Amino acid sequence: AGSVLQVGDLSLEEVGAILALADELEAEDAAKRAERLYKRRVSLLFYESSTRTRTSFELAAKALGADTSLVSAQSSSIEKGESLKDTGITLKALGAECIILRSPYSGSAQLLADVTGLPVLNAGDGMHEHPSQALLDLRTILQKLGKAGKPVSATLLEGVTVTICGDIFHSRVARSNAQLLPRLGAHVILCGPTQLLPELAASMGPGLSIERDFDKALEQSQVVMMLRIQAERLAGLSLDLEEYKSRYQANAERMAAHAPKAVIMHPGPMIRGLEITSEVADGPQAVIAEQVHNGLAIRMALVDRALSRHAAGGAAKTVAKA
Ligand code: CP
């Protein structure tokens, strides 16, 4: 209970409750908010680098009064070969009541939840999912389209087209958004070259289509999400970057011609000059900093939800009995 491993774990009612809790926590008096999870223990277990997700989860847990500890691959016994299972059991024995995991391995968040019995928040597992990113993206989209605070339903985003452009194949952000947004009625267009978006991706689910021509996709879209090319996962794939830029880069000329009013998003990190130019990233259509800002409220809601559903001291008692 309380884990969020993929967006499919959440009913639309639960998505609505998380958005409402994020609003409530953001507005709450800081001292009162810090009483919510006073001295509860939250572990951040990061096997991959992160700036936004790690910092915002840590700040979120601290804002709720929790104690946090960070274990990263480079400075822990993971470097000596300790398994995810043993690392999880160790953190639980030390009193962790919730683990926030980022890992290069798809499915590792589920495994950690299974072996520890603790609520696990998936902060990105390989090419699988990044559910907290999809939730903060949803909060941003609702705010920008004037739909914040409205009840979450299967029709809330009816008539809205979102294009996700770039390295779809390797992107957990794309996978989580492509599964969440159509459930609220949005049409999601996936856009990119075949190396980064195989035809197979069309079987991802309803409400999705593929458009290889970025300009055509832009003309239909109210929201555009640009993605980084994930060089660390590209092994064996060759890509002509100049051709990629000419076809898929979000630049000022293209946006003015094909989507002058669209909301432009990017989960970060951005590679300026490749998938997006600085002119667009820093321009009036971009909401990239607002996405980052929304990460804090969403992650406060996820941590609060996880620990509210997990009794205080439960982990320590389970270990003592074992
Ligand atoms: N969007 C995102 O996950 O960024 P980080 O890798 O910096 O956490």
TrEMBL record:
Its EC number is 2.1.3.2. The keyword Transferase applies. Residues 4-142 form the Aspartate/ornithine carbamoyltransferase carbamoyl-P binding domain. It catalyses: carbamoyl phosphate + L-aspartate = N-carbamoyl-L-aspartate + phosphate + H(+). Gene3D superfamilies: Aspartate/ornithine carbamoyltransferase (3.40.50.1370). Pfam families: OTCace, OTCace_N. One of its GO terms (cellular component) is cytosol. PROSITE patterns: CARBAMOYLTRANSFERASE. Pathway: Pyrimidine metabolism; UMP biosynthesis via de novo pathway; (S)-dihydroorotate from bicarbonate: step 2/3. GO terms for biological process: 'de novo' pyrimidine nucleobase biosynthetic process; 'de novo' UMP biosynthetic process; amino acid metabolic process. L-aspartate binds at K80, R172, R228. Keywords: Pyrimidine biosynthesis, Transferase. Heterododecamer (2C3:3R2) of six catalytic PyrB chains organized as two trimers (C3), and six regulatory PyrI chains organized as three dimers (R2). Belongs to the aspartate/ornithine carbamoyltransferase superfamily. ATCase family. HAMAP family: Asp_carb_tr (MF_00001). This is Aspartate carbamoyltransferase. It comes from Silvibacterium dinghuense. The gene is pyrB.
